[in-house]
Amino acid sequence: MSFVEYGDTIKDGDTAIVFLGHESMFPVKVQHGTVTQTKYGVIRHSTDLIGKKYGSKVTCSKGGWVFILHPTPELWTMNLPHRTQILYSTDISIITMMLELKPGSVVCESGTGSGSLSHALIRTVAPTGHLYTVEFHQQRAEKAREEFREHGVEHLVTVTNQDVCKNGFGVSNVADAVFLDIPSPWEAIGHAKAALKAEG
């Protein structure tokens, strides 16, 4: 399973979205032998999820039902654990358009935060582009690395834990675009310029 490559079948280890309704959904890590409790009853991962198709209607133990959806950056934005204030899909779509991103683009981002924008950027530049994202806070950087690995996109992203205003992005002359979401973005302009390609 990958957030950028659609898979038909739910597999052990996947992140899936349990959809009860537009105002009620949540992510679940699919694991053999595990159960998930919903207001409609229990979902047994081994029998109700693994091997079923994404989009399937699953009947829970109390007779109610849910849909199991393949994760997308948009669904992840609606369900991710908030480590910081996040950007939502409307703003994200404008950002990716204004940055003129496409498959194969290289983009630098600071800060990573909860990874809402990061997931959308990764999908936009896949399968041959790359995201270099810098997060000042060590635990947030580690959690972002873990989520990118679980979501099957770690080959498309490099997470660095440092102060972008002092140490930059760790790359030079590679980026097509740079996005700064930090308290004092003007302090990172020199590093942003250094990261950009001549025509970036």
UniProtKB/TrEMBL annotation:
Assigned keywords, A-Z: Methyltransferase, Nucleus, S-adenosyl-L-methionine, Transferase, tRNA processing
InterPro entries from the UniProt entry: SAM-dependent_MTases_sf, TRM61_C, tRNA_MeTrfase_Gcd14
Assigned GO CC terms: nucleus; tRNA (m1A) methyltransferase complex
tRNA (adenine(58)-N(1))-methyltransferase catalytic subunit TRM61 C-terminal domain: residues covered: 64-200
Keyword DNA repair: no
Enzyme type, top EC level: transferase
SUPFAM superfamilies: S-adenosyl-L-methionine-dependent methyltransferases
The protein, known as: tRNA (adenine(58)-N(1))-methyltransferase
Protein species of origin: Anhinga rufa
